[in-house]
Specification:
2,3-Dihydroxybiphenyl 1,2-Dioxygenase, domain 1; 8-stranded mixed beta sheet
Length: 255
Amino acid sequence: MTTTTTDDAPVTAVRPGWASLASADPHTVASFYRAVLGWAITETNGRLIASAAGTPVADIADITVADGTPGWLIHFDVDDLDTALAAVSKADGAVLPLADGGSAGTAVVSDPNGTRVGLRAPAAPHREQPAHGTLGWGELITDDVDTSAAFYREAFGWGLTEPSGPLGRREWQTHGRSFSGLLPRPPAMPAETPAYWDVYFAVDDIEAAATAATEHGGTPLMPPTPVEIGTIAVFLDPAGAVFTLVQLTTEEAAA
């Protein structure tokens, strides 16, 4: 693939590092993800903290103490949060108020299309290869590819590959390495569903994980399907939040 942008802009966010879920039934969905992804769950200040391979990877909160928006919110690690927020504002994005109980060193912003994304100062180095149950990828599903490309390029220095495959999926890159994707709204996605950043959780065996998700109350939206980065399966959790399981190819897992 060839990229449509260069790395001339400073890179302040380079890979997904955390995921937050606002749910109407946090304890039920925590049990669901524990069964599917092997998470260990602890509770701190009203939020459930999920760990995989000994590392905290996500939090789950009741929607009444989150920000009022159900579903998963992906967070990208940034080198310096203040610098990143200034870049967001300069690129015509917006910095949103932090929800009650939000953590220091994190922020939620929206791009010019109104799509929310989290930013955080990383607490620990990333693993070279995403372990089972960790956040392995993110994908922006958007109605406006050009505006999205311009914003993330200006704010964070991200490049985009050329469209690939029947749905025109593209990959966000820095320094020639892919770390997340962009997908124009697919025809099967309901028109009333707003654009969003999808979270991808890495699994060692996509067939086994998809079976576990179905058996424990998940609703399959797409069965295990090969894509450019590996094999994915898309689900609703028992409270209705969309998420994706991914068994990454060796090349993508090592990126």
